[in-house]
Design a protein that fits this description.
Length: about 200
């Protein structure tokens, strides 16, 4: 098993443990405390007549801006990452937790950093074709892993997983849950069938 698969397996194990130890939603304890403080401030703001919808929008924006970048490349530059974050329930919060877990399991490899590195290499037009092609193949492979981890943490935070945490009950497997999410499968196939389109930087005229 290579370091990429080892790092991914470690992330999965940590996410499952968080779900079993702390229940839903799947959050790191430190993130949960910050979220609770934000909720308290938001409630106080409601009493003062503040607009909570505006607060939520600002909170999502600052979450995105906190992402670690590689030479100004960030994950939200990739349209499919933005799309899956938008369509899944609690997508922004789930990705925040996932990214925090990835960072804590980065002893062998940081999956996000690897994706951004290979995307940077692929979009460097001065490099030889074979180097750019190799970066595309490896980068989109890692992107698909990250993409499915976003789906997986959403699955863990849903009722489908509850049965695995209750003695005598049976939960829904991730595979079965995924079959009920055709939009996720469609985006996954887009990564496989149109890798260069998914990984390319937009060209502005």
């Amino acid at each position: 098993m290579g370091r990429g698969r080892t790092a991914t397996g470690t992330v999965i194990a940590c996410l499952v443990k968080l779900r079993c130890d702390y229940g839903r939603p799947v959050r790191l304890p430190s993130i949960q405390r910050v979220a609770s403080n934000v909720d308290m401030e938001s409630s106080s703001g409601d009493e003062a007549g503040n607009d909570t919808e505006t607060h939520d929008t600002i909170n999502e924006r600052t979450t995105i801006e906190r992402q670690t970048s590689v030479s100004s490349f960030v994950m939200d530059d990739i349209p499919l990452v933005r799309k899956i974050t938008r369509i899944l329930e609690n997508g922004v919060a789930s990705r925040e937790t996932l990214d925090a877990v990835i960072d804590r399991c980065a002893g062998m490899q940081n999956l996000r950093h690897a994706i951004l590195h290979y995307r940077k290499v692929f979009n460097n037009q001065t490099l030889e074709h074979h180097r750019r092609r190799a970066a595309l193949d490896r980068g989109t492979e890692y992107l698909e892993r990250y993409f499915m981890l976003i789906a997986f943490i959403t699955y863990l935070g849903s009722e489908a997983f509850d049965g695995f945490c209750t003695p005598g009950c049976v939960g829904t497997t991730f595979k079965a849950w995924l079959h009920k999410m055709p939009e996720i499968q469609e985006m996954q196939w887009n990564i496989r069938l149109r890798p260069s389109q998914v990984f390319s930087m937009p060209v502005f005229s």
